[in-house]
Structures are given as C-alpha cells and as structure tokens.
Amino acid sequence: MPVLNDTVLQLLLLAVVLLPLLGAAAALLPAPPGLRGSSPDQAVLRHGVTVTGLVLLASLVLAAGFDHDRAGQMQATTDISWIPALDIRLHFGVDGISLPLIVLTALLTFLCALHTYARRGDGGPSPKAFVALLLVLETGTLATFAVLDLMLFFLAFEMVLIPMYFFIARWGGAGREKAAWKFILFTLVGSVVMLLGLLLVGLEAGTFDMVALAEQQGAGLARGTQLLAVLAIGIGLAVKTPMWPLHSWLPDAHTAAPTVGSVLLAGVLLKMGTYGLVRIVLPIAPEGAHYFAPYLAAFAVVGILYGSLACLALVRQGAGGDLKRLIAYSSVGHMGFVLLGIATLTRGGVNGALFANLAHGLITGLLFFLVGALKDRTGTTDLDQLAAGGGAALYGRSPRFGGLLAFAAVASLGLPGLAGFWGEMLALLGAYHPADGLNRPAYLVFMAAAGFGTLLTAAYLLLVVRRVCMGDRPPADAALPDVRRHEYAAWTPLVVLTLLAGLWPALILGLTDPAVQNLLPGVSR
User: What confidence score (pLDDT) does residue 55 get?
Assistant: First the structure.
C-alpha cells in the first residue's frame, strides 16, 4: 500500500522534475542563495550538490510512497491543458518502468555533483556555467522519463543536447570540438526525423497523449502510418541508444568528455532512446513494431559483436587503445542486448531490456568514475602506457582501487550474482521464444550470435583487468593514492546497487513486469 496519498506524490514528481531547473537559474545568480563557501566557485559547486541532493531525496521519497501493488498503473499524475488547439498537455506520471530510471538519473547526477565539488577543478573556468548546465541536463532527463505527452517528450528529449554539447566542447579533452559537433549533428538529425514520426502519430490519431495512444494499441493508426511512424521514431531513438551503425558519435564523445559528462552520457542519456522504444513505439504502433522487430534484432546482434570485436582490437598489446574509448564501444555491445530484448516483443525480453538498461547505467557509470580517477593518478588512460614496464600493477600500487576496477569489469561482463547478468540472460531467453509471428529460426541465430558476444565481452574485460591491475610487483615508491573519501562516497552506492540488483533481481523486475503487462497487453511469456 502507498505510504503517501496521490496529491503528495504529484507534488513530489513535479518537484523532482522542476527543482533542477530552478536550481540552474539560481546557480547563475551572483551568489547562490543560502550557501557560502571559501570562494564563490566553492559556493556554486556546493549549490550543485545541495540541489541534486534534494532531487535525489525527493525521488527516493517518491519511490517509497509509490504503490508497488499498482506498479503497472500511472501514479502521481498531473494533466493540465497547455496548447488546446493541438491537444498538447502538461501530462506527467510515473509507473514501474519510469520510476527506476528517475531514481537512477537523480542518483548519478548527485554523485557527479559530489565528485565535482570534491575535485574543485572539474568546474573548469566557469563553475557557474558548469553547475547550471548539469542541472538543466538533469531536468531534461528526468522530464523525459516523467512526461506522458509526445510533444513534451520531444522537448525534454532535446533539452539535454545543449548541456552535453558544452560539457564536451568546453570541458572535454583532446579532440573535444570535433567530438562535440559530431554528437550534436548526429542527435539533431535523428531528432528531426523522430519529430516527423511523432507528429504523424499525433495528427493521425487525434491526440498526443501517450496514455490514450497506448490504450488504443494502434487502433486509430493505419498499417502504413504505423510503419512510417516506427521507422521515423525508431531512427531518432536509435541514434541516442546508440544502435549500430548509428553509433559512431559515441566513442569520440566519450573519449573527449570529462568524467562527469561520460558518466551521465552512458548512465542516463543512452537510456532515453531505449525507454522511448518501450514507452512509445511498442504500445502505440504494435503492427509497425512487429514488422520491424527482426531488423531491430539483427542490428542489435551486429552491434553486440561489433562492440566486442572493437574492444578486443583496442585492448591488444601495441594497439594504443584508450580505456574510455573501450568502455564506449562496450556500451554499443551492452545496449545491443537491450535492443535485442525489446525486439523479441515478449514480456521476458522487454523486462530483460529494462533490467539491462538499469544495470548498464550503474556499472558503466562506475567504470567511467574509475577510469577518470585512474587518469588523475597516472595522467593517462592509454592501455599501452598503463601497462608499460610489465603492467600498471594496480593491485600492488593501489589495491582497493584495483579491486574496484576488477569488480566493475566482472560486473560488466555479466557475472552471475551481479546486476549485469539478469538483463542479458532474459534478453537471450526472449530470443529463444520470440513473440508469435516472428521467425523463430532467425531469432535462434540471433540468440547464438549474442551468446558468442558474451564470450567476447568476457575476453576483452579480463584482458583489461590483466593489463591494468596485474603486473610485476612495483617498487615501494611506486604506490598510487588509493581510494579517497569522496571517491568512496561517489562509488559505494553504485557498488551496493550492483550487488543488490544482482542478488535480488525481483527488486527491479517486481516494478517493471506489471508495467510491461499493462503497457503491452499483447505480449506473452
């Protein structure tokens, strides 16, 4: 039973979405209200921690007050007319699909703000701008998971582009300008195509309300309209996911981005694309989704194999592979499992996709935090430089740090008992028995190829651990700083949640499964 009534939950959800935007405006004031520090820069960084902390607290109270017995139904709903002529509404709500993503977004943004405050230097030449952009990005991502109107979804989806562009272009490393332009061009072009698909659906059906459209299950849309809409919307969402071959902006963006940018890009922004596929494409245009599902599965499997092979190429000795670039390519493979689960059109497969979404956010967020800290300690993320002279030997030079890196690596490869395992397993099981009407022999081939991809993933991640963590015993004066207090604060929640989700998957599946059944009543198994 819910602890809080629906009115309180409504206010909490609106606070979660709007508080970062108000905080962004306050961050640009001469001095953030109510906070003082040893310098104006410290005060604004402290402001960022405070606002994101309040948003995290509100999201946790929202999760605690959420009625888990009605996880399949929209709760905390607000529905206000905004543009009556087009029936565009300020419609917000949360169910078992969106709630975990809202909490994940609030958590990762808070940890990024805490990391920036502790570092004091990540704010770069303008901490005010950095904090304001961080909070605007948080508003856009949270709104994407909370809105229930197609046009509002598009606006929130686009809201994150400018902050991420500046994170890369202004605070990034080598090659940042090219990476930032590549990011913005790919995502903007995809968004224009997606907007056309959203308009087609809304104008043809007579409403942009996502709840009403999902209840119709495509009844108001002709087959040709559904096919065009799924193609257009799917391309826009696939760019953000990113799906092979629309992924080429991602490695450059991750390699150039600062640590905070990489954590949020991998942990949150990539989830917006796959969330859109589940929330919009599958229920609103089921006939179009069924037609394109085998193609989506094929692209997903190619992405799994391509990402793994690219990582193996980067990790081999003498290749000059960059750890951040390697994790970016690994994301292409991991998100391939999410897409494969969605493409099965089964209850188990879609639940696996949603679980893998969350697991990837936790584990890859942790990996980018660790790689950023490794660069701070050694001055490089180049594998050949790290392994020069017999090995970086993190186990000997910084044992707790090396142990955390190894933990994140084995979690990423899908070790049973950790969060990375369940989503990939459910996606594979969904491919073994895809939805009725899909070509089962083709899906069995997809399953086998994806299963081989898990072996390739294990291979390159274990090679990374060997090259970075092991090696000749270093001299006594070669020790590196071990895990610091602010790093413990930023990384411990991700480690704990990775363990908790792996050992108790019902914590997530108990939320997502009723919502999947309600949103996609036509799926089985």
Answer: 95
